[in-house]
Write a structure and sequence with these properties.
Blueprint (H helix, E strand, L loop, with lengths): L1 H15 L13 E5 L5 E5 L14 E3 L4 E4 L14 E2 L2 E3 L2 E2 L5 E2 L5 E5 L5 E6 L13 H14 L3 E6 L12 H4 L7 E5 L3 H6 L15 H6 L1 E2 L2 E2 L2 E6 L1 E5 L10 H10 L8 E2 L7 H14 L4 H4 L6 H12 L17 H5 L2 H7 L5 E5 L3 H7 L6 E4 L9 E9 L9 H14 L1 H8 L18 H5 L1 H4 L4 H4 L7 E2 L6 H18 L38
Parallel strand pairs: 1-9, 10-11, 10-12, 17-18, 20-21
Antiparallel strand pairs: 1-4, 2-3, 2-6, 5-8, 6-7, 12-20, 13-14, 15-20, 16-18, 16-19
C-alpha cells in the first residue's frame, strides 16, 4: 500500500485519506506520528490545491498511529525539479523546507497534541554510517530527546545531504525568511553569513568549547555560532613509526621504507572545489607559519608550496595512474561508500590521509586493524589546521528575544552537549558492535572520559589540540573560486592529469570540461571522502 500511496494517490486519496499506515514506509516519505489521545489533522505539500492537487487532502492521523505520505509524483513542476515535500501543517503548526525527496531519507514529525510552535532545523549531514542507513534512527532520537525536554515545540529536524549547506547561493535561501531556524554548517562560510546579516550572534550555554573551536566560530570579535564538530586530515598506518612523522621531508623517506603493497604508498583524495584551497592553505602554513595565513589566501600560489603538494600527491601514483588526483577516489561511489578506506584497511595501500571520522570505514572493513595516527603533513613543519562546524540561527526566522530564539538555544545546547556527542560518536543509533564514528568533539570534557581515553584512536587525535589553529572563516564565493583556479593551474602544470574540480559555476567562468565541478561537487563528501 505504501507504493500505491506514493504513485497512485492522485485518485486514491479519498480512500487512503481515512487510513493510517503503520507498516514501515519506503525511504523518502513523511512520517506523521501521533502520540496524543486525539486525532490530528494535517495537510501536506503537494496534496493541496495551492501545491498542484485537485483538492486539499485533510489527513486525519489517528491516536497512536503513524501515517506515511509520499510525494505527489503527478504534480506539474519546472524542468529538473523533483517532487518534494517541503512543508506539513498539522493542528495549525506548519513546518518549512523539509526537503523530503523520494531518493532521500524519511522525514518525521512526532505530534503530541501539546505543541504550540515549530522549530525547523538541519543537522550537518556528512557523517559516516553503514550502507543503506540514512540517519533516520539518529534523527528520531534527536526529536524524541528534544521534545521530551521541550514539549511545547514541534521539532522538524533533518539530516539530509540533499540540503546543500556548501553553497554561497543556497545558504541565503536556507537561512532566509522562508527558511530554517537552525542550521549546523561549516565555518568556512561564517563571515559571509554574518556580514550578510543572515545569522544571529551566538552565545555558549554550558561547557566552554576548546579555544580553537571558539576562534573558528568568531568573526570580528563576535561569536556567531556554537561549535559542534572539528575536523582535520590525519596520517593512518599500521606501523607505529608513522607517529614520528612531523614534516613532508620526513614522510617521503618513511613511505619509501615501508614494504611494498599492491597499491599506492599513500592513498587519499586531493580533488574538489574546497579541497584545492584547503590543501594549499595547509601547505602554506606548514612552510611559513600560522601567523602568515592571510598571505595563504593571496594568489598566485607559492611555487615551493605547490612543489610540496606535487611531491605529496605523487605518493599515490601506482600502476601508471594516480587515483588520488585523477578524480577516481573523489567519485561519488568511492567517496560515499568508504572505498578508499577499504583499500587501505585491506592492505592495498601502505598508508592513508583521511579525517578522524573516516576510521569508521577502516574499522568496518577490517575490525582487527590496529591503527597508528599522526597529524597530516604538507610542508616543512607541523601545524594542525582544523575545519569546524557550528550551529547558527536565522536572523530572519529566529530573531533574538523571540520564542524561537529560546527554542533554538535549547536545541543547540542539546546537540552540542556531552550526552548527544557520546551518542553520535559511539554510533548508538546503529547496531551494536558498529565502529565508533571518531569525530573530533570540541568539548574538553569529552576527552577526559574513561571510555574515550580507552579508545585506541582518541588519545592519538587529541595530541593536536595544543597547537591546533582554525581554518579561515572569511571565504567568499569569488575567493574560493580564485584560489581553486590558481592552485589547479599550478598543479596541472606539474601533473597534467590532475582533475581539479574547481567549482567554476560559482562565478560563471568557463573551464575545460574536466575542470568544471558538477553541481553536487560544491558539497563535500566529508563524511566519507573529504571536502570537495
Amino acid at each position: 500500500m505504501k507504493t500505491i500511496l506514493r504513485i497512485c494517490a492522485v485518485w486514491l486519496a479519498p480512500i487512503i485519506g481515512a487510513l493510517a499506515f503503520t507498516a514501515p514506509a519506503t525511504a523518502g516519505q513523511l512520517k506523521l506520528q501521533n502520540t496524543s489521545g486525539q486525532p490530528i489533522t494535517c495537510t501536506v505539500d503537494g496534496w493541496t490545491v495551492a501545491t498542484g492537487y485537485a483538492f486539499d487532502w485533510q489527513i486525519a492521523v489517528q491516536p497512536g498511529e503513524t501515517f506515511y505520505v509520499g510525494q505527489n509524483t503527478l504534480r506539474v513542476l519546472p524542468d529538473g525539479q523533483l517532487p518534494t515535500i517541503d512543508w506539513a501543517s498539522c493542528g495549525g503548526l506548519t513546518t518549512r523546507l523539509m526537503n523530503i525527496t523520494a531518493a532521500g531519507p524519511d522525514g518525521l514529525l512526532v505530534l503530541t497534541g501539546a505543541q504550540t510552535r515549530v522549530l525547523n532545523a538541519a543537522l550537518y549531514p556528512y557523517l559516516p554510517t553503514l550502507p543503506g542507513d540514512q540517519f533516520e534512527a539518529l534523527v528520531a532520537h534527536v526529536i524524541d530527546t528534544y521534545q521530551a525536554a521541550n514539549p511545547q515545540v514541534l521539532l522538524s529536524a533533518q539530516l539530509n545531504m540533499a540540503t546543500d549547506i556548501y553553497s554561497f547561493t543556497n545558504l541565503p535561501v536556507l537561512l532566509g525568511a522562508g527558511g530554517l531556524d537552525v542550521v549546523e554548517l561549516d565555518t568556512l562560510y561564517l563571515a559571509f553569513l554574518a556580514q550578510s546579516g543572515l545569522i544571529n550572534p551566538a552565545q555558549i550555554v554550558g561547557e566552554q568549547p576548546l579555544p580553537v573551536a571558539l576562534a573558528a566560530a568568531t568573526v570580528d570579535q563576535q561569536l556567531w555560532g556554537v561549535p559542534s564538530w572539528l575536523c582535520m586530515d590525519f596520517l593512518y598506518a599500521t606501523d607505529p613509526g608513522v607517529q614520528q612523522i612531523t614534516s613532508l621531508a620526513g614522510l617521503l623517506p618513511y613511505l619509501n621504507s615501508l614494504a611494498p603493497v599492491g597499491g599506492p604508498k599513500l592513498i587519499a583524495d586531493y580533488n574538489g572545489s574546497w579541497r584545492l584551497p584547503s590543501i594549499y592553505i595547509n601547505g602554506y602554513v606548514q612552510n611559513h607559519g600560522y601567523g602568515q595565513i592571510a598571505q595563504a589566501l593571496q594568489m598566485p600560489p607559492d611555487p615551493e608550496v605547490i612543489a610540496n603538494l606535487v611531491a605529496l600527491t605523487d605518493t599515490c601514483a601506482y600502476g601508471g595512474g594516480n587515483n588520488c588526483t585523477n578524480g577516481a577516489n573523489h567519485s561519488a561511489e568511492n567517496a560515499q561508500n568508504g572505498a578508499i578506506e577499504t583499500i587501505f584497511a585491506n592492505g592495498d595501500a601502505s598508508t592513508e590521509l583521511a579525517f578522524s571520522e573516516q576510521s569508521f570505514f577502516m574499522k568496518s572493513a577490517n575490525p582487527a586493524l590496529n591503527l597508528y595516527v599522526a597529524p597530516g603533513v604538507w610542508g616543512q613543519g607541523p601545524q594542525p589546521l582544523l575545519f569546524s562546524d557550528v550551529f547558527v540561527s536565522s536572523a530572519a526566522t529566529c530573531p533574538p528575544q523571540s520564542p524561537c530564539a529560546a527554542d533554538a538555544t535549547a536545541f543547540t545546547s542539546l546537540m552540542t552537549g556531552l550526552d548527544m556527542k557520546n551518542y553520535i560518536v559511539q554510533a548508538r543509533d546503529l547496531p551494536q558492535g558498529t565502529p565508533w564514528r571518531t569525530l573530533l568533539v570540541p568539548l574538553p570534557s569529552f576527552y577526559e572520559q574513561g571510555v574515550v581515553q580507552a579508545n585506541p584512536l582518541y588519545p592519538q587525535y587529541a595530541r593536536i589540540f595544543g597547537a591546533a589553529e582554525p581554518f579561515p572563516n572569511s571565504f567568499t564565493a569569488a575567493l574560493q573560486t580564485e584560489m581553486a583556479f590558481a592552485v589547479c593551474a599550478a598543479l596541472k602544470a606539474a601533473q597534467p592529469a590532475y582533475v581539479c574540480k574547481t567549482g567554476a559555476a560559482n562565478d560563471n567562468q568557463a573551464l575545460p570540461a574536466d575542470e568544471v565541478a558538477p553541481a553536487q561537487d560544491a558539497a563535500p563528501a566529508r563524511r566519507k571522502g573529504g571536502r570537495s
